[in-house]
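Record 1 of the preview.
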Amino acid sequence: MDTLQVTTLQNRCPIKRTDKPIAVLLSGMTASSGEIVAISLKGRPATRFFGEPTYGATTANESYRISGSSYLTIAGLLETDRNKTTYKTSLTPDVLITGGDNFTDLRQDAKVAAALKWLKKGR
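->
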């Protein structure tokens, strides 16, 4: 059971690469699939992470058939970014901003303001 399986997917759809900046907002509410999307952007040039550490549900599920239609599903897979960094717990932002959330008026949100300032500066 102490093994590591690495899976690589073939790119069947050409993607136009760009160096346009991406600001990623994180918080303790960023969990599971949100963390996986963030991990997919880790190591990308012109990408910066703002906010608070994520929830920490960075595992993926793997199901095993027990018998008939019964399965055992275990959160037993870890996510790895493009630089081969494996995430066992939460993601930490590049720019730590604790609190300051304003979901009613995003212009007053500290994380959004910091991300916009960085984007407008041109990285």
